[in-house]
Amino acid sequence: MNKQVTNPVNLTAEEFIYPGNRACSGCGLSTLYRIGLKALGRDSIFVVPPSCLTVMQGLYPIAATQIPSLNVTFASTAAAATGVRAALKARGKENIKVVAWAGDGGTSDIGIQSLSAAIERGEDFLYICYDNEAYMNTGVQRSGTTPRGAYTTNTPIKGKIQKNKDLPTIMAAHNPTYVATCSAAYPLDFHNKILKAISLKGMKYIHIHTPCPSGWGMEERLSITVGKMAVNAGLFDLYEVENGKKTLSGPSAKLLKRETLPRIDEYLKAQSRFRMLTEEHVTELQAEIDAKWEKYRQEMG
Amino acid sequence: MKKIESGNVAAALGVKLAKVQVVAAYPITPQTPLTEKLSELIEGDELKAEYITVESEHSALAVCIGAASAGARAFTATSANGLLYMSEQVHWAAGARLPLVMCVVNRGVGAPWTVWNDHQDSISQRDAGWIQIYVNDHQEIIDTVIKAFRLAEAVSIPVMVCYDGYYLSHTYMPFDVPDEQKVDTFLPEYQYKHTLDPQNPENLNTVTMPFARPDRDGVTQPGYMDIRHNLHEELGTAIPVFEQIDAAYKEAFGRGGKPIMSDYRCEGADYIVVSMGSLANRIKDVVDELNDEGVKVGVLSLHLYRPFPREQIIAALENAKGVIVIEKALSYGNEGALFGDIKAALYPCEKRPFVHNYIIGLGGREIKQADLYDSIKASCTASENFEDVSRWIGLNR
Amino acid sequence: MDEFKCEIKTSNSKSGPGDAGRTGSWRVERPVIDLSKCTPAKRQKDSCYLCWLYCPDGVISKELEPKIDLEYCKGCGICAQECPTGAIKMVEETSLIEEERKNDEKN
Questions:
Q1: DSSP letter, residue B45
Q2: Can you say whether residue B277 is alpha, beta or left, with left for phi > 0 and alpha for psi between -120 and 50 degrees?
Q3: To the nearest whole angstrom, how far is the Cα of C58 from the nearest Cα of chain A?
Q4: CA dist A112 to A116, A168, A178, B55, Å?
Q5: Distances in Å between the alpha carbon of B138 and those of A83, B64, B142, B143?
Q6: Nearest CA-CA distance, residue B8 and chain C, Å
Q7: Shortest Cα–Cα distance, A54 to chain C (Å)
Q8: Separation between Cα atoms, residue A90 and residue B395, nearest integer Å
Q9: Cβ–Cβ of B216/A62 closer than 8 Å?
């Protein structure tokens, strides 16, 4: 296990993605991908369904990524990764890491069936879901993880009426080897959780809250700031699940010691996508967060 | 070694001899016994391969796509709605130029549900860019599966080996199992041009622009349409390649010689019946009967349906007075799929034979020898006023 | 293996910079570092490097006096926002262009 604490000083300066790629300015996924690759290294094979990452990794014949990558159909990510893993096993190249990296639509909606099956089969690869809470690559349509009240281009007047799926909990219910949640605002936490995940055999699932300036309606410079707000207000929690046990990690673990957390209002107000959210909804959301943390304090505090 | 086994087992034994490294399996009637047999061979250590029990056909082909892209020889099999559920992946595998082999155990498609045989499933995928081969008996199943891997890998295009559900999949017939060492020589180890490899990282199946674009070194690379044109062109080259592979197979195993189509009593025939799969075998009896009556008629069993062997079709049919296409699939709202293809192929011929069409046996509807006899005879004795439409035979009315 | 002349074309990309061209041309504001306030520059010791860590495009160098690759910097301003000492300011490209033009005329 990685004992050394990773910090910006000791983190490798080697880059595995070229600049001049197609990610939007201020993209949360870009930072994640950059730092994530530093943890994974070159001995990896990526499997990527349609998503912003497809575009970011480059358009033919130029690849922004320096890692071999297989673009696959939307629903098939975990199945294709299974095939890659099986081939590597058959060819005696098991040291190569297989990493499926998909968005929230590709994971919570169209890809959930093949992912669920891959976990049930006990496949040996890492599945990363970067959750920017809508179909951003097609122009911001609601997904299973879009939160209530959020404006998207197909919830244009009322905002999304339903609450979001709790995807990491659904994945944890399958009992894979490892489940972790991360935030793009805490890339080093993500880096370290990848190091842990790849040290383990079996299915690993990492879910990342990923701010998206263009989809969330916020200034590009605020990607990290707003991501941190979600964590510090207790809305999106960073944790790990191993052997059925959930443990809060990093900045979320620190929140356990606090009696009260900052209210969620600041996070919501920083993004224009929440402009339709009613007072009543905000109060309800705050109550949910408070109840969740009360439970955390009782169980883990 | 001679065996008496089902068609599904013949296919599984072919897959075993091809030393497939990854098998993806999802049950669907009438394919199921094929992948069951493979699980038995793999669990019993007779075949060293990864056996992946996926949750759907879409994932079955995804596993094969992933495996082939990472350098392994991969196989799956399906039928009917299973094939249609994976249709997106069918197109993907061809566009990605992955040399997969898939058995399609032909079955009619729902709705309404049917588990019985016709060809609508694989015919509906004819435009996906795969090579499609239809076989007539158990010996052809096992031989064709082995040849299909070599063909797929030679041209980097996936191959569907199609055989009739129940008529072939579940019936027992004697067949010869080729010698393993000879198959090893015939079918060398799998090599793929664009294998996922950290030593040579490539981003495969990237979004491709409508126009040609320079790469990192300033060399212009093809656009989407150029890449697709290349697939089309190389499907064309697959015809002579298949002939060469079949000749090599014949040299090694003593069987083959007619990989594109096989003919029965076609030489000097006035009329030629064209059909595919086990139906072509049944028509042989009718052809014999009619010849006994003095009608000079033969039957042509088309094996290679895609790429469509236009030149060979013309050569085989252009001197006949009439061509009778009997098939188990159609383009709804138009006519028999094979019928349309045959007519189009013969269009440029100076002396065009008439072409008639019969649709038969959909969803396992009993194919009566008398119906075949009556239809073929009606066409062979038809006047010029015989209407050029698809005739459905065996309807309940 | 069989000797056939197949020139298999697939969409297989090789890695290189600038898939989206010079993404620096997207920039509205330019990050400008005041080294007198920058922690590693001031201490002449490897430290902080938060701008380098958070930069989505990896265009800030990890060195005692960090440099920004303006050819590819998209100008998001995350570096300026996250810099703990306020050493990075976002400056309007239009004003800088005006200044550069004046300098060019002088030379």
A1: T
A2: left
A3: 6
A4: 6, 12, 17, 11
A5: 30, 25, 7, 9
A6: 29
A7: 12
A8: 51
A9: yes
A301, two tokens: 């505090």
Average pLDDT across chain A, whole number: 97
pLDDT at residue A1 in the model? 45
Chain B contact probe: residue of A56, A65, A84, A116 with most B CBs at under 10 A: A84
On whether any CB of chain C is under 8 Å from the CB of A295, the answer is no
Instruction: Give A-chain residues touching C82 at CB under 8 angstroms.
Output: 224-225
B19: left (phi over 0), alpha (psi -120 to 50) or beta: left
DSSP character at residue B350: S
| pLDDT of res. A69 | 98
Residue B60 sits at the vertex; the CA angle it makes with A122 and B156, to the nearest 5 degrees, is 120
Query: Does B20 lie at the interface with A, CB-CB under 8 angstroms?
Result: no
The answer to whether the CB atoms of C10 and B193 lie below 8 A apart is: yes
Q: Do B244 and C9 touch (CB under 8 A)?
A: no
Superfamily of domain A28-300: Thiamin diphosphate (ThDP)-binding fold, Pyr/PP domains (3.40.50.970)
For chain A, domain boundaries: 28-300
Percentage with pLDDT > 90 across chain B: 97
Contact B390, B326 (CB under 8 A): no
Inspect the interface and report whether the beta carbons of A20 and C81 lie closer than 8 Å.
no
Are B360 and B326 in contact, with CB atoms under 8 Å apart?
Answer: yes
pLDDT digits (tens, 9 = 90+) for A81-97: 999 999 999 999 999 99
Taking an 8 Å cut-off on Cβ atoms, the answer to whether A90 and B49 are in contact is: yes
CB A100 within 8 Å of CB A47: yes
Which residue type, as a one-letter code, is found at position A18?
Y
Q: What is the dihedral of CA C37, C38, C39, C42, to 10 degrees?
A: -70
Average pLDDT over residues A267-277: 97
Identify the burial level of A149 via C-beta atoms within 10 angstroms of its C-beta, where 0-12 means exposed, 13-18 middle and 19 or more buried. buried
**B177: DSSP letter:** P
| Per-position DSSP letters for A181-214, written without gaps between them | EEETT-HHHHHHHHHHHHTS-S-EEEEEE---HH
* Eight-class DSSP state of B211: S
- Give the pLDDT band of residue C8 (cuts 50, 70, 90): confident
The answer to whether B90 touches B200, Cβ cutoff 8 Å, is no
Q: How far apart are the first and last CA of chain C?
A: 67
CA distance A69 to B57: 23
Nearest Cβ partner for B222 among C5, C9, C13: C9
The CA-based diameter of chain B, rounded to the nearest angstrom, is: 72
As a residue count, chain C comes to 107
pLDDT tens per residue, range A28-76: 999 999 999 999 999 999 999 999 999 999 999 999 999 999 999 999 9
The alpha-carbon radius of gyration of chain B (Å, integer) is 21
Domains annotated on chain B, with CATH: 2-186 (3.40.50.970), 261-392 (3.40.50.920)
Q: Supply the angle between the helices B138-155 and B224-253 in degrees, to the nearest 10.
A: 130
Candidates A65, A70, A78; nearest CB to B196: A70
Average pLDDT of the residues in B254-278: 98
Kindly provide the ipTM of the predicted complex, given to two decimals. 0.97
Please provide the size of chain B in residues: 397
In this complex, is the C-beta atom of C6 within 8 Å of any C-beta atom belonging to chain B? yes
Amino acid identity of B94? A
Contact yes or no for B303/B262 (Cβ under 8 A): yes
Chains that touch A (3 or more CB pairs under 8 A): B, C
Largest CA distance in chain A: 59
SS3 A119: helix
Residue ranges of A 12-51 with Cβ closer than 8 A to chain C: 13, 15, 17-28, 30-31, 34-35
